[in-house]
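Dear support,

I submitted the protein below through the web form. The confirmation email said the job was done, but the results page showed an empty box. After a refresh the structure appeared. I'm attaching both so you can tell me whether what I see now is the final result or a partial one.
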Amino acid sequence: MADETAQIETAPAAEQIDNEAGALVATNTEVAPPTGKKVVKKIIRKKRRPARVQVDPDTISSEPPPQTGTIYNIYYNKWAGGDKDQLVQTKSKGRCNVAKDSGYTEADETAGSYFCLMFARGLCSRGPSCSKLHRIPGVFDIVPPNVDCFGRDKFAGYRDDMGGVGSFMRQNRTIYIGRIHVTDDIEEVVARHFAEWGQIERTRVLNSRGVAFVTYTNEANAEFAKEAMAHQSLDHDEILNVRWATADPNPMAQAREARRIEEQAAEAVRRALPAEFIAEIEGKDPEARKRRKIEGSYGLEGYEAPDEVHFARGAQAVNPHGREELELEYQEPLAIEDGPVPEANEQMLEAPVPAPRESGGILSGNTIAALNKAKISIAAKPKTASSGPLVAYDSDSDDE
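What the results page shows now:
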């Protein structure tokens, strides 16, 4: 047989993208010279990894907690009443490892699913069959303001101990970490352990007190980190006390938060406006920048007016466009020569000019003129003739 088969050459994989969502892996980005041979790129589709079962379901016991009160609440699995033993804290039985435990679940097929609370605590026994997400929150995970990232309802105010779900009255992205073992590298240890749960914006550590404040860029990451690091330990055997942080009274922190809110509002406006308009405002359009440079000089060579002067409006505006609206209000309509006069203008011309107000008087000239007109009209009113009185009527009879 003289059939010639085309030689298929598989290019070696040059780069593989490790993506849990199952991305297409690029094999080779270089363009091979034409050799007359058919080159086929091999596409490797990586399968999505299922979520790992963190705890064996057989090891989970449903025994009731020890009796510390008088009434047992079946909904909260706690005893009501009795002595409160809040000062004694026990270490958490599990801890989440994002690199090993993350994966797809049944919640990935449902839009708007919340994150798994047991996964954050490292105690989820359902794995890929869980109805919640098994990953950390991202930038594009939008959560309603009245619930947290786990779907729990928020309240109007915080608890006295700043624990719990939190409040929907204020966007809190800072968590408080107490009972940290004091070392020389405490700041590096805190940043290393808490950077696993999201992007950190700012970290503040009080070395003498063993206290740290961690601020995340996203509120959902702060909520996830608070539950994931509660009753955990860092490099030593301490048990962390993780709570919500109160509002920072520092004026610099308040100014920084106000600036962040303004930047978010500006970004929202920037996305809503057209790209051409944004480019003109920000000076990225070359034609608009050239036109602004010519118009902003106002005939003065080398002068460029600032934005406050160029965009000013009013009678004292330097820019002629800023006086157009004001001039249009006082501009009289032009009449055609030897043409008919509009009725409105004719009435304005025939209307009497109001008398000026006399200085020192109580009433104005317009009021006095109106009173005089009313007096004249009353005086000029003709009198009606009366029928006259009834005379020569002296009958005392009731019949008449």
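Response: this is the final, complete result; the empty box was a page-load delay. Residues 1-26 have pLDDT under 50 and may be disordered.
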